[in-house]
Amino acid sequence: MSATLSIDEKVLVLNRGYAAIRICHAREAFTLLCREAAEILSIEEGQYLTYGLHDWMDVAQLQKELEPTKHRWLRLPTIDIAVPKIIRLLSYDAFLKPEVRLTRRNLFSRDKNKCQYCGKRFGAGDLTLDHVVPRVQGGENSWVNLVCACMKCNTKKGGRTPRQANMRLIQRPIKPTHCVARKLRIGSRQYYSWKAFLDNAYWSIELDEG
């Protein structure tokens, strides 16, 4: 039995240079395809093939017969159309590079859930966020001033800098160039074809499996 469609099914959007720039819903993807502002990129037997919307509709029946469980389907009165997993814009060359959001999840991902003072790995519930330069000394909430710390090390450091507390960071905190948390979120077979385009993509959103 084929999978059914949610019109909010997620579709990866590439720019004309095949760089991933964002994720849209199936409704928007089909709108772009109808306007001939995008084409479908399909991975078939290890090769990348492109389709316009009319060509995609032409192969819909064959897809339905041979690959019913590989796709989500848009059911129309006379035909079922597979929802594309990836579309490529035909006239948009900009490579968007949004800011990576400063969130607790992204900080834990950057530091690999390790206390940056003792080096031990902890579950999220046993980790805190420590201001390298304490707020009482003018420290800000920023990528370069926040690190993961276990409760014991955070308590020991208190309102002091690492030097004042005679403690040393195991690595200098930096601002990541991409959302490292995304690797923990993309595992669904439905979106496996995205992986080749996400290695060097920049995201300020989490990519849910849907």
- Strand % is 15-25%
Report how far apart the termini are. 19 Å
Sum up the overall morphology in one term.
Answer: elongated
Instruction: Report the total helices.
Output: 6
Spatial order of strands in the largest sheet: 3-2-8-4-5
Rg measurement, Å = 23 Å
Query: Would you identify the regions where 5 or more consecutive residues have pLDDT less than 50?
Result: 1-5, 180-185, 200-210
Class per helix and strand makeup: alpha+beta
What is the mean pLDDT? 79
Number of domains: 2
How would you spell out the order of helices and strands? EEEHEEHHEEEHEEHH
Most strands sheet? 5 strands, mixed
In short:
The chain is of the alpha+beta class. It has two domains: 3-97 and 180-198, no CATH class; 104-157, DNA Binding (I), subunit A. The protein has helices spanning 26-34, 53-58, 60-66, 104-110, 151-157, 195-198; strands at residues 3-4, 10-14, 20-25, 38-44, 47-51, 72-75, 80-82, 86-89, 127-131, 146-150.
Keyphrases for this structure?
210 residues; alpha+beta; DNA Binding (I), subunit A; 2 domains; five-stranded mixed sheet; three-stranded mixed sheet; disordered N terminus
Describe the structure.
The structure is a single chain. The chain is an alpha+beta fold. The protein folds into 2 domains: 3-97 and 180-198, no CATH class; 104-157, DNA Binding (I), subunit A (Orthogonal Bundle). The chain is 19% helix and 22% strand. It has a 5-stranded mixed β-sheet with strand order 3-2-8-4-5. A 3-stranded mixed β-sheet has the order 1-6-7, with helices on one face.
